[in-house]
């Protein structure tokens, strides 16, 4: 039987399809084209319908403890799972197949040990660094995560304002539930942390919040080009994140059980992650097309092997005599397996970092290497930075914070990780992210021959 809340709408790819419930609406195409007002109204109606639908319970936020009592990302997750609807939980928490990759993303950090140094003056500690040439207050960014308004009405604007409290960078999802202009401009309407104290701010004189835009290339290239033209009008967006790790969705069984048909339509018949996504991207063709339609730096998201990182670095800085249209424009990569939501049993970003050190360490000086997936603690962040990552991204943690407390909940998630990172750095004997080096970690508990070889390589590198 058809859902009584079904309604027809036309997304900006020109495809007419039914809106079945709030999950479908909020994970659909971005609502910021010529008919954006209509789409926003449709989202509001479906949110209200979901709130009143007994089949989609949304427990009271009164069940969540005060934010100051939530001491870890695990606490935030536990509280979020009590206040989110079952459909939202199935979307945010799900991963593909047996969820082996999703859990491996976190477990790998437990196998890396820290090696503190003593007699180091750690009276003061700064988390400031740069990401693709943009100064940020913490080595942490919010990864693109669709449908933030499924967690809280603040949506992506709540995430943006929380990031502003820390000078953190936000990568806006291609499937954001709010217009990019509304997201970036929401920060301008608030007092910056450099002007006023905040219970969540961790240091003064924070840099202005920066944004990046996640791009899925659509089969209808004209639509993608129109999107890029709109993004060009927003100076707050500093670079484009071209997403490559999910040309097709994985088999996410929790989504299927809750009939999130726009994410996965069932069985083994793979559907595009975003309606109309192009699955035939190639290095030269796609990058040459992209640089013709944006002046912004480019970051490739979803690289899962050292070979692809090496290729990216080779194209970013080609050998003498070679030149590509995108040379100098390709500035970084995000090692990511889509949070375990695409192909299961893949390598983790940390494994790729280790392979980079073994096979092509020179790329660390050519590209900004970012990672996301599995970050639960500040010690995880420190380990990733020591292994060569420039910054790390969080996705689910930000959404869980948003679900529990809106903007303040996201700020609480960032505060927890910032404080834990500061503590870990001081106890290690370093005062800034740039001081972290491979000798600050031990890989002895990783038993494979590969990681032993990497550890030997680390020992041969210069120490501080």
Automatic annotation (TrEMBL):
Signal peptide from the UniProt entry: none
Protein keywords: Oxidoreductase
UniProt cross-references to SUPFAM superfamilies, sorted A to Z: FMN-linked oxidoreductases (SSF51395)
PROSITE patterns, A to Z: FMN_HYDROXY_ACID_DH_2
Pfam families: FMN_dh
Cross-referenced InterPro entries: Aldolase_TIM, FMN-dep_DH, FMN_HAD
Annotated ranges, domain FMN hydroxy acid dehydrogenase: 65-446
Cofactors that this protein relies on: FMN
Any one GO MF annotation of this record: oxidoreductase activity
Name of the protein this chain belongs to: FMN-dependent dehydrogenase-domain-containing protein
